[in-house]
Amino acid sequence: xxxxxxxxxxxxxxxxxxxxxxxxxxxxxxxxxxxxxxxxxxxxxxxxxxxxxxxxxxxxxxxxxxxxxxxxxxxxxxxxxxxxxxxxxxxxxxxxxxxxxxxxxxxxxxxxxxxxxxxxxxxxxxxxxxxxxxxxxxxxxxxxxxxxxxxxxxxxxxxxxxxxxxxxxxxxxxxxxxxxxx
Length: 182
Description:
Elements: H1 4-20, E1 23-28, H2 34-46, E2 52-56, H3 59-66, E3 82-87, H4 91-104, E4 109-115, E5 118-120, H5 122-130, H6 134-181
Antiparallel strand pairs: 1-3, 1-4, 2-3, 4-5
Helix pairs in contact: 1-3, 4-5
């Protein structure tokens, strides 16, 4: 049993984490063993959601920590066996990891999430999980920005390359004529 001071410390810690989180996911973990929950934590560390945290907390602590904060809209989902996953980085990567885990473990059910002040239902979380990760989007953007420059470089190099091929072909053709004429 937690003392009042320990609960207050947990509330303060969660309030601080909710304040700097990019997204918060609420899930029901009823029927999941401790071993399977630890597998989820390990999966979060290995996945692109490494800047995320998964924890189980008392509903009263979660409700007090969310009061007046950016995740107050999730307050109604803090009931029953509640766990929260907090992302401090890419929300799509965490959503993918949680949705994949929920597919493998039917007892684990995502209830809701908070993303940019919007409350997402389980369907919205699934949709978020289909989005490309932040790193993938950055890679695509860099590719789009580099494409015109590389095309321009190829275009500028092409006349010189054509001349080099012609000179090479002539020199090879001249050598074979010289060899054949002896």
